[in-house]
Amino acid sequence: MLSTLIVVMSLITTAVIYLFLPLEAKWWCVVPLALATGAFVIRKGINEWWYTKFPLGLAKKEKEILNKFLPYYRNLDEEHKTIFEQRVAVFRVQKEYKMRGIEQVPGDIQLLMSGVAIQLTMGLAHQKEFYPELGVVVMFPKTFITPDYHEQLHAVEFNKDVYDCLLMSINMFVHGITKPKNYYNIGIHGFAKAWKAYNDIKDSDIPYKNTKELLVKLHQLRGFKLGYQFQYTALPTMEVFEMCVEHFFEVPEKMQEVLPGVYASLMNMFMQDPANRSNPIIQVPVAVPNPIEGEEVNEAEDPKEDDNQSAA
Question: Which of 131, 135, 227, 299 is the most exposed place for a label (fewest CB within 10 A)?
Fold first, then answer.
């Protein structure tokens, strides 16, 4: 790492000055010593800047893991795979990962979660800082409760109380990426929550007038029972934007066919067309069809009596 190199070289310079310069010149030791101290204190920032400017990419084993578990990455052409890999490497330096119960986060989980995060950013060609206000990703082995949502176990939460952090259940995250036909992808949902917060997006920005009708169609696209999202979020209302983003990346062809206006709107938001799997990046915004006509609904609510997922 660059910061380590700066510290080592500064300490070597300090030793050379102390050993070989005359007594009256030894005060020059202060300069490289101060540089070494400063580099150590701000080492995270130095390393982040260096890897952003000169991304390392990923090891062969890491590429194999992404290729096995992330269809989005697997279907990219070689040029976009390289960009994806570089962004994942930068994201892992920029963010801190913590896990409740054990000291070290498993490397493959950290890699896959970083990959899901970068999936949403691929259309932003010149972006170097990803989810800039998100500092920490906190992982729990299983579903959890928190002070904010303590009445029901849940799998994903975005918390801005003290500092911005994304909380996620590892077992449900793994189910979402290994069994996408049976489980909801809470990784995409979680980073969509962060995206929504930082870009000041509201559920009402989705161009579909009848929210209840939209929710029914989203459930049908994934083949899940009505209300399944409650067991993931523990929220009293559906998170419409986050659900649309999950469907946008998980079942793009179906969404494009059934909800063309919503799909086109998300294409412009992410500058991507996930249905074009080898090269999803778009260069110019597309035309968005008029919102589907129907009864105007302001609140996104669904009955809780069918809150079990079809295959959970």
Answer: 299
